[in-house]
């Protein structure tokens, strides 16, 4: 049985956004790398919540790149749009599957905030964990408003309904 958009989004906030925030402020020197992996997967999950129903079920796995890029281009702040392809290939694929990056340099220090999404001395593009988290949180709020706000976006709601999103299997113990 499929779940409601509100329940799915509430679960995302409870099981992803809240723990991520704790991870980022807890001991960032030790946890920032794993926080980036989760931030990357959070974008992927939000992209699926929004776009999964837009593509034929038989070809879902072939549309992951398009969903990821569409989410970045339509929900993340404008500066990310120039990097949507690189974010998918390097951040999403290389970081999650190989624990390495060739384009982005992930950083957590407050001093790196001013370099966020800019080329730094090593030629890589700086990603600051706190700023990326805040931008993902803003994208989540925008999606939430589209799906369950006062005036829901019909296309987004139709896509969500077609996807038949299931209840989160994670439960509190």
Question: How does this structure look, described?
Answer:
With about 170 residues, this protein is mostly helical. The chain is about 60% helix and about 5% strand. The protein contains 7 helices and 2 strands. The chain has helices at about 5-25, 30-50, 65-75, 80, 85-100, 130-150, 155-165, and strands at about 105, 125-130.
Write the layout of secondary structure elements.
Blueprint: H1 5-26, H2 28-51, H3 64-75, H4 78-81, H5 84-98, E1 104-107, E2 125-128, H6 129-148, H7 154-163
Parallel strand pairs: 1-2
Give the number of DSSP strands. 2
Q: Unreliable segments (pLDDT under 50, ≥5 consecutive)?
A: none
Strand content: under 5%
Mean pLDDT: 88
Question: What is the CA-atom radius of gyration, in angstroms?
Answer: 16 Å
Major sheet attributes: 2 strands, parallel
Structural class: mainly alpha
* Spatial separation of the terminal alpha carbons: 23 Å
Number of helices: 7
Helix content: 55-70%
Shape: globular
What pattern of helices and strands is seen along the backbone? Answer: HHHHHEEHH
- Spatial order of the strands forming the largest sheet: 1-2
Summarize the structure.
The protein is built from seven helices and two strands; from the N terminus they run H-H-H-H-H-E-E-H-H. With 173 residues, the chain is mainly alpha-helical. The chain has a two-stranded parallel ribbon with strand order 1-2.
């Amino acid at each position: 049985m499929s779940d409601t958009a509100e329940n799915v989004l509430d679960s995302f906030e409870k099981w992803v956004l809240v723990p991520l925030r704790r991870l980022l402020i807890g001991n960032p020197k030790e946890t920032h790398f794993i926080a980036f992996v989760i931030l990357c997967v959070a974008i992927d999950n939000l992209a699926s919540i929004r776009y999964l129903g837009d593509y034929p079920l038989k070809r879902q796995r072939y549309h992951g790149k398009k969903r990821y890029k569409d989410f970045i281009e339509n929900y993340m702040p404008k500066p990310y749009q120039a990097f949507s392809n690189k974010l998918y290939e390097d951040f999403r694929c290389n970081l999650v599957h190989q624990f390495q990056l060739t384009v982005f340099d992930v950083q957590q220090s407050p001093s790196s905030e001013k370099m966020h999404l800019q080329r730094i001395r090593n030629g890589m593009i700086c990603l600051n964990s706190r700023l990326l988290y805040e931008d993902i949180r803003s994208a989540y709020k925008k999606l939430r408003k589209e799906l369950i706000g006062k005036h829901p976006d019909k296309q987004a709601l139709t896509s969500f309904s077609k996807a038949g999103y299931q209840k989160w299997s994670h439960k509190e113990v």
